[in-house]
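Following up on my earlier thread - several people asked me to post the actual chain instead of describing it. Fair enough. Here it is, all 444 residues.
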Amino acid sequence: MSDERPHFVLRWLTFAALFSSGVVFNEPPLTDLLFFLTFAVAVFHKDAFELRGFGAVLAGSIVLFLLANGLSLMAAETHIAATKYLVVTVYLFAMFVFVAGWIGRSGMDGYAFLTRAFISGAFLVGMIGILARFNLMPRSELFFLGGDGLRIKSTFKDPNVFAPYIVAAFMLVLNDALTRRRRLWSAAVLGLVFALSILFAFSRGAIFHLAVSLFVYALCVVFLVRDAAITKRFVAGGLVVSFGVTVFGIYAIAATGLDGFFAERMKVQSYDSERFAMQALTLHVAAENPLGIGPGEWNVTRFANDPHNVYLRVLAENGVLGTIGWILWCACCATAALSGILRRTAAAPMHAACFAILLGLYAEAMIIDTLHWRHLFLVAGLPIGLRIAEAHGAIREHEGTEHDSTEHDSTAQDSTAQPGSAPSQGMRRGAHQPLVTPRESAVS
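Reply from S.P.:
Thanks for posting it. Predicted structure:
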Protein backbone atom coordinates (compact mmCIF):
# COMPACT_ATOMS: atom_id res chain seq x y z
CA MET A 1 0.00 0.00 0.00
CA SER A 2 2.80 2.43 0.86
CA ASP A 3 4.37 1.86 -2.58
CA GLU A 4 1.13 2.10 -4.57
CA ARG A 5 -0.09 5.39 -3.08
CA PRO A 6 2.85 7.55 -4.21
CA HIS A 7 2.65 6.08 -7.72
CA PHE A 8 -1.07 6.83 -7.72
CA VAL A 9 -0.30 10.48 -6.91
CA LEU A 10 2.39 10.63 -9.60
CA ARG A 11 0.08 9.04 -12.13
CA TRP A 12 -2.76 11.48 -11.67
CA LEU A 13 -0.55 14.53 -11.35
CA THR A 14 0.81 13.54 -14.74
CA PHE A 15 -2.70 13.10 -16.12
CA ALA A 16 -3.72 16.53 -14.82
CA ALA A 17 -0.61 18.18 -16.30
CA LEU A 18 -1.23 16.72 -19.76
CA PHE A 19 -4.99 17.24 -19.58
CA SER A 20 -4.45 20.94 -18.92
CA SER A 21 -1.77 21.36 -21.59
CA GLY A 22 -4.21 23.23 -23.82
CA VAL A 23 -5.06 25.91 -21.25
CA VAL A 24 -2.42 28.54 -21.94
CA PHE A 25 -4.20 31.85 -21.46
CA ASN A 26 -1.57 33.11 -19.06
CA GLU A 27 2.14 32.65 -18.29
CA PRO A 28 3.03 30.42 -16.65
CA PRO A 29 0.13 28.19 -17.71
CA LEU A 30 -1.46 25.70 -15.32
CA THR A 31 0.13 22.76 -17.13
CA ASP A 32 3.64 24.06 -16.36
CA LEU A 33 2.88 24.47 -12.66
CA LEU A 34 1.46 20.94 -12.53
CA PHE A 35 4.46 19.52 -14.36
CA PHE A 36 6.89 21.19 -11.94
CA LEU A 37 4.94 19.58 -9.09
CA THR A 38 4.98 16.27 -10.99
CA PHE A 39 8.75 16.48 -11.44
CA ALA A 40 9.15 17.07 -7.70
CA VAL A 41 7.15 13.93 -6.91
CA ALA A 42 8.92 11.93 -9.62
CA VAL A 43 12.33 12.56 -8.01
CA PHE A 44 11.29 10.24 -5.18
CA HIS A 45 9.96 7.53 -7.55
CA LYS A 46 12.73 6.92 -10.04
CA ASP A 47 11.55 3.33 -10.42
CA ALA A 48 8.59 4.68 -12.41
CA PHE A 49 10.96 5.56 -15.27
CA GLU A 50 13.34 3.73 -17.57
CA LEU A 51 15.91 5.72 -19.57
CA ARG A 52 18.49 3.06 -20.40
CA GLY A 53 18.66 3.16 -24.16
CA PHE A 54 17.80 6.87 -24.37
CA GLY A 55 20.63 7.32 -26.87
CA ALA A 56 23.96 9.12 -26.66
CA VAL A 57 23.40 11.15 -29.84
CA LEU A 58 19.96 12.25 -28.66
CA ALA A 59 21.32 13.26 -25.25
CA GLY A 60 24.23 15.01 -26.93
CA SER A 61 21.90 17.04 -29.15
CA ILE A 62 20.04 18.33 -26.10
CA VAL A 63 23.27 19.19 -24.29
CA LEU A 64 24.61 20.97 -27.38
CA PHE A 65 21.44 22.99 -27.86
CA LEU A 66 21.27 24.04 -24.20
CA LEU A 67 24.99 24.84 -24.17
CA ALA A 68 24.48 27.09 -27.19
CA ASN A 69 21.62 28.77 -25.36
CA GLY A 70 23.93 29.42 -22.41
CA LEU A 71 26.63 30.88 -24.65
CA SER A 72 24.17 33.14 -26.49
CA LEU A 73 22.78 34.31 -23.14
CA MET A 74 25.94 36.38 -22.67
CA ALA A 75 24.97 38.48 -25.71
CA ALA A 76 21.39 39.13 -24.54
CA GLU A 77 20.31 42.71 -23.98
CA THR A 78 17.62 41.70 -21.47
CA HIS A 79 19.25 39.03 -19.33
CA ILE A 80 16.22 38.46 -17.11
CA ALA A 81 13.83 37.90 -20.03
CA ALA A 82 16.39 35.75 -21.85
CA THR A 83 17.00 33.65 -18.73
CA LYS A 84 13.27 33.09 -18.29
CA TYR A 85 13.04 31.99 -21.89
CA LEU A 86 15.93 29.57 -21.38
CA VAL A 87 14.31 28.17 -18.22
CA VAL A 88 11.18 27.34 -20.23
CA THR A 89 13.34 25.61 -22.85
CA VAL A 90 15.07 23.51 -20.17
CA TYR A 91 11.69 22.66 -18.65
CA LEU A 92 10.33 21.47 -22.01
CA PHE A 93 13.30 19.16 -22.52
CA ALA A 94 12.70 17.84 -18.99
CA MET A 95 9.13 17.09 -19.99
CA PHE A 96 10.43 15.33 -23.10
CA VAL A 97 12.71 13.12 -20.98
CA PHE A 98 9.87 12.52 -18.50
CA VAL A 99 7.56 11.26 -21.25
CA ALA A 100 10.26 9.02 -22.73
CA GLY A 101 11.16 7.55 -19.32
CA TRP A 102 7.53 6.96 -18.39
CA ILE A 103 6.78 4.99 -21.55
CA GLY A 104 10.17 3.30 -21.41
CA ARG A 105 9.16 1.83 -18.06
CA SER A 106 5.50 0.97 -18.66
CA GLY A 107 5.43 0.36 -22.42
CA MET A 108 2.17 0.47 -24.33
CA ASP A 109 0.20 1.11 -21.15
CA GLY A 110 2.26 4.21 -20.53
CA TYR A 111 1.75 5.37 -24.12
CA ALA A 112 -2.01 4.87 -23.82
CA PHE A 113 -2.19 6.70 -20.50
CA LEU A 114 -0.23 9.76 -21.62
CA THR A 115 -1.88 10.11 -25.03
CA ARG A 116 -5.38 9.72 -23.62
CA ALA A 117 -4.72 12.39 -21.03
CA PHE A 118 -3.59 14.67 -23.86
CA ILE A 119 -6.53 13.75 -26.10
CA SER A 120 -9.05 14.26 -23.28
CA GLY A 121 -7.71 17.75 -22.67
CA ALA A 122 -7.75 18.52 -26.39
CA PHE A 123 -11.39 17.42 -26.59
CA LEU A 124 -12.35 19.84 -23.82
CA VAL A 125 -10.40 22.68 -25.41
CA GLY A 126 -11.92 21.92 -28.81
CA MET A 127 -15.44 21.84 -27.41
CA ILE A 128 -14.92 25.22 -25.74
CA GLY A 129 -13.88 26.69 -29.07
CA ILE A 130 -16.81 25.19 -30.97
CA LEU A 131 -19.35 26.26 -28.36
CA ALA A 132 -17.90 29.77 -28.47
CA ARG A 133 -18.14 29.71 -32.26
CA PHE A 134 -21.92 29.21 -31.98
CA ASN A 135 -22.16 31.65 -29.05
CA LEU A 136 -23.08 28.90 -26.61
CA MET A 137 -20.39 29.83 -24.06
CA PRO A 138 -20.51 32.65 -21.52
CA ARG A 139 -18.18 35.45 -22.63
CA SER A 140 -17.69 33.73 -25.98
CA GLU A 141 -15.63 36.66 -27.25
CA LEU A 142 -12.77 35.60 -24.96
CA PHE A 143 -12.19 32.53 -27.08
CA PHE A 144 -11.70 34.40 -30.37
CA LEU A 145 -8.68 36.15 -31.80
CA GLY A 146 -9.38 39.87 -31.68
CA GLY A 147 -12.82 41.38 -31.52
CA ASP A 148 -14.15 40.37 -34.94
CA GLY A 149 -15.39 36.95 -33.77
CA LEU A 150 -14.01 35.10 -36.78
CA ARG A 151 -11.12 32.81 -35.72
CA ILE A 152 -11.45 30.68 -32.58
CA LYS A 153 -8.41 30.28 -30.34
CA SER A 154 -10.26 28.60 -27.46
CA THR A 155 -8.01 28.57 -24.37
CA PHE A 156 -4.87 29.49 -26.35
CA LYS A 157 -3.48 32.92 -27.10
CA ASP A 158 -3.33 32.29 -30.85
CA PRO A 159 -5.39 30.12 -33.24
CA ASN A 160 -2.14 29.30 -35.06
CA VAL A 161 -1.00 27.40 -31.95
CA PHE A 162 -4.41 26.08 -30.94
CA ALA A 163 -5.08 24.40 -34.30
CA PRO A 164 -1.76 22.46 -34.55
CA TYR A 165 -2.31 21.25 -30.97
CA ILE A 166 -5.64 19.85 -32.15
CA VAL A 167 -3.99 18.32 -35.24
CA ALA A 168 -1.72 16.24 -32.98
CA ALA A 169 -4.73 14.97 -31.02
CA PHE A 170 -6.59 14.22 -34.27
CA MET A 171 -3.73 12.07 -35.59
CA LEU A 172 -3.42 10.15 -32.32
CA VAL A 173 -7.15 9.43 -32.33
CA LEU A 174 -7.01 8.33 -35.97
CA ASN A 175 -4.29 5.83 -35.13
CA ASP A 176 -6.21 4.60 -32.07
CA ALA A 177 -9.26 3.97 -34.25
CA LEU A 178 -7.34 2.09 -36.94
CA THR A 179 -5.59 -0.13 -34.39
CA ARG A 180 -8.81 -0.69 -32.44
CA ARG A 181 -7.36 0.89 -29.34
CA ARG A 182 -10.44 3.10 -29.21
CA ARG A 183 -14.09 2.34 -29.96
CA LEU A 184 -15.33 3.62 -33.29
CA TRP A 185 -18.06 5.86 -31.86
CA SER A 186 -15.56 7.48 -29.50
CA ALA A 187 -13.09 8.11 -32.31
CA ALA A 188 -15.88 9.52 -34.50
CA VAL A 189 -17.01 12.03 -31.87
CA LEU A 190 -13.45 13.10 -31.09
CA GLY A 191 -12.52 13.29 -34.76
CA LEU A 192 -15.53 15.49 -35.58
CA VAL A 193 -14.78 17.89 -32.72
CA PHE A 194 -11.13 18.10 -33.71
CA ALA A 195 -11.92 18.61 -37.41
CA LEU A 196 -14.34 21.45 -36.65
CA SER A 197 -11.84 23.02 -34.26
CA ILE A 198 -9.16 23.06 -36.95
CA LEU A 199 -11.64 24.41 -39.48
CA PHE A 200 -12.94 27.26 -37.30
CA ALA A 201 -9.40 28.32 -36.35
CA PHE A 202 -8.78 29.20 -40.00
CA SER A 203 -5.09 28.50 -39.62
CA ARG A 204 -3.31 27.96 -42.92
CA GLY A 205 -0.31 26.53 -41.10
CA ALA A 206 -2.43 23.96 -39.26
CA ILE A 207 -4.18 22.87 -42.46
CA PHE A 208 -0.76 22.47 -44.09
CA HIS A 209 0.42 20.54 -41.02
CA LEU A 210 -2.62 18.25 -41.15
CA ALA A 211 -2.17 17.60 -44.88
CA VAL A 212 1.50 16.69 -44.42
CA SER A 213 0.76 14.45 -41.42
CA LEU A 214 -2.08 12.61 -43.15
CA PHE A 215 0.03 12.07 -46.27
CA VAL A 216 3.02 10.77 -44.30
CA TYR A 217 0.79 8.57 -42.13
CA ALA A 218 -0.88 7.08 -45.20
CA LEU A 219 2.50 6.23 -46.75
CA CYS A 220 3.68 4.64 -43.50
CA VAL A 221 0.55 2.55 -43.02
CA VAL A 222 0.41 1.29 -46.59
CA PHE A 223 4.08 0.77 -47.40
CA LEU A 224 5.90 0.35 -44.08
CA VAL A 225 3.54 -0.98 -41.40
CA ARG A 226 1.94 -3.26 -43.99
CA ASP A 227 -0.73 -4.68 -41.74
CA ALA A 228 -3.62 -5.78 -43.96
CA ALA A 229 -6.35 -5.12 -41.39
CA ILE A 230 -5.11 -1.61 -40.59
CA THR A 231 -4.65 -0.77 -44.28
CA LYS A 232 -8.21 -1.86 -45.10
CA ARG A 233 -9.62 0.20 -42.26
CA PHE A 234 -7.53 3.19 -43.31
CA VAL A 235 -8.69 3.06 -46.94
CA ALA A 236 -12.35 2.37 -46.16
CA GLY A 237 -12.51 4.71 -43.18
CA GLY A 238 -10.57 7.39 -45.01
CA LEU A 239 -13.09 7.53 -47.82
CA VAL A 240 -16.06 7.71 -45.44
CA VAL A 241 -14.45 10.22 -43.07
CA SER A 242 -13.15 12.43 -45.88
CA PHE A 243 -16.59 12.59 -47.46
CA GLY A 244 -18.32 13.21 -44.12
CA VAL A 245 -15.89 15.86 -42.90
CA THR A 246 -15.99 17.65 -46.27
CA VAL A 247 -19.77 17.74 -46.45
CA PHE A 248 -20.22 18.68 -42.79
CA GLY A 249 -17.40 21.22 -42.96
CA ILE A 250 -18.90 22.96 -45.99
CA TYR A 251 -22.27 23.03 -44.27
CA ALA A 252 -20.78 24.40 -41.04
CA ILE A 253 -18.85 27.12 -42.88
CA ALA A 254 -21.89 28.12 -44.93
CA ALA A 255 -24.25 28.00 -41.93
CA THR A 256 -22.03 30.39 -39.98
CA GLY A 257 -21.64 32.71 -42.96
CA LEU A 258 -17.86 32.28 -42.97
CA ASP A 259 -17.45 30.82 -46.46
CA GLY A 260 -16.12 34.11 -47.82
CA PHE A 261 -13.70 34.51 -44.93
CA PHE A 262 -12.47 30.93 -45.37
CA ALA A 263 -11.77 31.53 -49.06
CA GLU A 264 -9.94 34.74 -48.21
CA ARG A 265 -7.82 33.04 -45.52
CA MET A 266 -6.64 30.40 -47.99
CA LYS A 267 -5.17 33.06 -50.27
CA VAL A 268 -1.76 34.69 -49.98
CA GLN A 269 -2.05 37.46 -47.40
CA SER A 270 -0.62 40.97 -47.66
CA TYR A 271 1.57 40.41 -44.59
CA ASP A 272 3.21 37.31 -46.08
CA SER A 273 5.75 39.51 -47.89
CA GLU A 274 6.64 41.11 -44.55
CA ARG A 275 7.28 37.66 -43.08
CA PHE A 276 9.63 36.73 -45.92
CA ALA A 277 11.46 40.04 -45.43
CA MET A 278 11.79 39.27 -41.71
CA GLN A 279 13.27 35.86 -42.52
CA ALA A 280 15.85 37.49 -44.79
CA LEU A 281 16.69 39.87 -41.93
CA THR A 282 17.14 36.87 -39.64
CA LEU A 283 19.89 35.53 -41.89
CA HIS A 284 21.62 38.92 -41.81
CA VAL A 285 21.47 39.05 -38.00
CA ALA A 286 22.73 35.46 -37.73
CA ALA A 287 25.71 36.27 -39.96
CA GLU A 288 26.68 39.16 -37.69
CA ASN A 289 26.17 37.12 -34.48
CA PRO A 290 27.53 33.57 -34.99
CA LEU A 291 26.96 32.71 -31.31
CA GLY A 292 23.45 34.17 -31.34
CA ILE A 293 21.78 37.21 -29.81
CA GLY A 294 20.32 35.34 -26.82
CA PRO A 295 17.36 33.04 -26.01
CA GLY A 296 14.04 34.63 -26.95
CA GLU A 297 15.70 37.94 -27.71
CA TRP A 298 14.43 38.34 -31.26
CA ASN A 299 11.11 40.00 -30.50
CA VAL A 300 11.89 41.14 -26.96
CA THR A 301 14.30 43.97 -27.70
CA ARG A 302 15.41 43.61 -31.33
CA PHE A 303 12.38 43.40 -33.62
CA ALA A 304 8.61 43.68 -33.36
CA ASN A 305 7.72 40.63 -35.46
CA ASP A 306 8.73 36.98 -35.30
CA PRO A 307 10.77 35.50 -38.16
CA HIS A 308 8.00 32.88 -38.53
CA ASN A 309 10.58 30.15 -39.00
CA VAL A 310 11.88 28.27 -35.97
CA TYR A 311 15.09 27.17 -37.69
CA LEU A 312 16.02 30.73 -38.61
CA ARG A 313 15.02 31.96 -35.16
CA VAL A 314 17.28 29.40 -33.50
CA LEU A 315 20.08 30.36 -35.88
CA ALA A 316 19.75 34.05 -34.96
CA GLU A 317 19.20 33.55 -31.23
CA ASN A 318 21.42 30.55 -30.46
CA GLY A 319 23.93 30.62 -33.29
CA VAL A 320 25.31 27.85 -35.45
CA LEU A 321 25.86 25.47 -32.51
CA GLY A 322 22.26 25.91 -31.38
CA THR A 323 20.98 25.25 -34.88
CA ILE A 324 23.02 22.06 -35.17
CA GLY A 325 21.76 20.91 -31.76
CA TRP A 326 18.12 21.67 -32.57
CA ILE A 327 18.13 20.02 -36.00
CA LEU A 328 19.99 17.00 -34.60
CA TRP A 329 17.40 16.65 -31.83
CA CYS A 330 14.56 16.86 -34.34
CA ALA A 331 16.28 14.28 -36.55
CA CYS A 332 16.88 11.89 -33.64
CA CYS A 333 13.20 11.95 -32.64
CA ALA A 334 11.98 11.41 -36.21
CA THR A 335 14.56 8.66 -36.80
CA ALA A 336 13.46 6.87 -33.63
CA ALA A 337 9.87 6.87 -34.91
CA LEU A 338 10.86 5.72 -38.41
CA SER A 339 13.08 2.93 -37.11
CA GLY A 340 10.21 1.86 -34.85
CA ILE A 341 7.98 1.48 -37.91
CA LEU A 342 10.61 -0.53 -39.75
CA ARG A 343 11.13 -2.87 -36.78
CA ARG A 344 7.44 -3.80 -37.13
CA THR A 345 6.83 -4.32 -33.45
CA ALA A 346 3.39 -4.06 -31.88
CA ALA A 347 4.08 -0.34 -31.55
CA ALA A 348 4.70 0.22 -35.28
CA PRO A 349 1.38 2.07 -35.89
CA MET A 350 2.04 4.30 -32.88
CA HIS A 351 5.48 5.08 -34.27
CA ALA A 352 3.82 5.89 -37.61
CA ALA A 353 1.42 8.36 -35.97
CA CYS A 354 4.28 10.06 -34.11
CA PHE A 355 6.42 10.18 -37.24
CA ALA A 356 3.59 11.78 -39.20
CA ILE A 357 2.88 14.38 -36.52
CA LEU A 358 6.56 15.22 -36.15
CA LEU A 359 7.11 15.70 -39.88
CA GLY A 360 4.01 17.88 -39.99
CA LEU A 361 5.36 19.98 -37.13
CA TYR A 362 8.80 20.21 -38.71
CA ALA A 363 7.23 21.40 -41.95
CA GLU A 364 5.02 23.93 -40.20
CA ALA A 365 8.06 25.17 -38.28
CA MET A 366 9.23 26.76 -41.53
CA ILE A 367 6.34 29.23 -41.33
CA ILE A 368 5.83 29.68 -37.57
CA ASP A 369 7.79 29.55 -34.33
CA THR A 370 7.23 26.15 -32.68
CA LEU A 371 10.15 26.17 -30.23
CA HIS A 372 8.04 26.36 -27.06
CA TRP A 373 5.04 24.31 -28.18
CA ARG A 374 4.34 21.87 -25.36
CA HIS A 375 2.76 19.25 -27.56
CA LEU A 376 5.88 19.12 -29.77
CA PHE A 377 7.94 17.84 -26.84
CA LEU A 378 5.19 15.43 -25.79
CA VAL A 379 4.90 13.87 -29.25
CA ALA A 380 8.70 13.79 -29.65
CA GLY A 381 9.02 11.85 -26.40
CA LEU A 382 6.56 9.13 -27.43
CA PRO A 383 8.72 7.25 -29.98
CA ILE A 384 11.79 7.56 -27.75
CA GLY A 385 9.85 5.95 -24.90
CA LEU A 386 8.51 3.22 -27.17
CA ARG A 387 12.04 2.50 -28.41
CA ILE A 388 13.30 2.16 -24.84
CA ALA A 389 10.38 -0.15 -23.97
CA GLU A 390 11.09 -2.29 -27.04
CA ALA A 391 14.76 -2.54 -26.11
CA HIS A 392 13.80 -3.94 -22.69
CA GLY A 393 11.35 -6.48 -24.08
CA ALA A 394 8.13 -4.71 -23.09
CA ILE A 395 7.04 -4.69 -26.73
CA ARG A 396 8.03 -7.55 -28.98
CA GLU A 397 8.21 -8.01 -32.73
CA HIS A 398 4.90 -8.32 -34.54
CA GLU A 399 4.17 -11.77 -35.93
CA GLY A 400 1.25 -10.72 -38.10
CA THR A 401 -1.60 -12.64 -36.44
CA GLU A 402 -4.66 -11.66 -34.49
CA HIS A 403 -4.42 -12.85 -30.91
CA ASP A 404 -6.72 -15.30 -29.24
CA SER A 405 -8.75 -14.89 -26.07
CA THR A 406 -5.88 -16.08 -23.87
CA GLU A 407 -3.61 -13.35 -25.19
CA HIS A 408 -6.42 -10.84 -24.76
CA ASP A 409 -6.74 -11.81 -21.11
CA SER A 410 -3.03 -11.15 -20.51
CA THR A 411 -3.25 -7.82 -22.34
CA ALA A 412 -6.27 -6.81 -20.30
CA GLN A 413 -4.39 -7.57 -17.12
CA ASP A 414 -1.48 -5.46 -18.33
CA SER A 415 -3.74 -2.47 -18.92
CA THR A 416 -4.11 -2.07 -15.16
CA ALA A 417 -0.36 -1.81 -14.56
CA GLN A 418 0.82 1.37 -12.89
CA PRO A 419 3.99 3.21 -13.94
CA GLY A 420 6.74 1.99 -11.69
CA SER A 421 5.21 -1.44 -11.11
CA ALA A 422 6.82 -4.59 -12.47
CA PRO A 423 5.69 -5.55 -15.99
CA SER A 424 3.12 -8.30 -15.94
CA GLN A 425 3.56 -11.59 -17.78
CA GLY A 426 2.08 -10.22 -20.99
CA MET A 427 4.61 -7.39 -21.06
CA ARG A 428 7.75 -9.43 -20.38
CA ARG A 429 10.09 -10.52 -23.13
CA GLY A 430 8.61 -13.33 -25.14
CA ALA A 431 4.98 -12.44 -24.59
CA HIS A 432 3.28 -11.93 -27.96
CA GLN A 433 1.62 -8.56 -28.49
CA PRO A 434 -0.21 -8.22 -31.81
CA LEU A 435 -0.22 -5.11 -33.96
CA VAL A 436 -3.97 -4.75 -33.58
CA THR A 437 -5.48 -4.49 -30.11
CA PRO A 438 -8.99 -5.99 -29.71
CA ARG A 439 -11.95 -3.66 -29.66
CA GLU A 440 -13.06 -5.18 -26.39
CA SER A 441 -9.97 -3.91 -24.58
CA ALA A 442 -10.22 -0.39 -25.95
CA VAL A 443 -10.89 2.46 -23.57
CA SER A 444 -13.33 5.08 -24.81
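The two ends are 29 Å apart (CA to CA). That should answer part of your original question.
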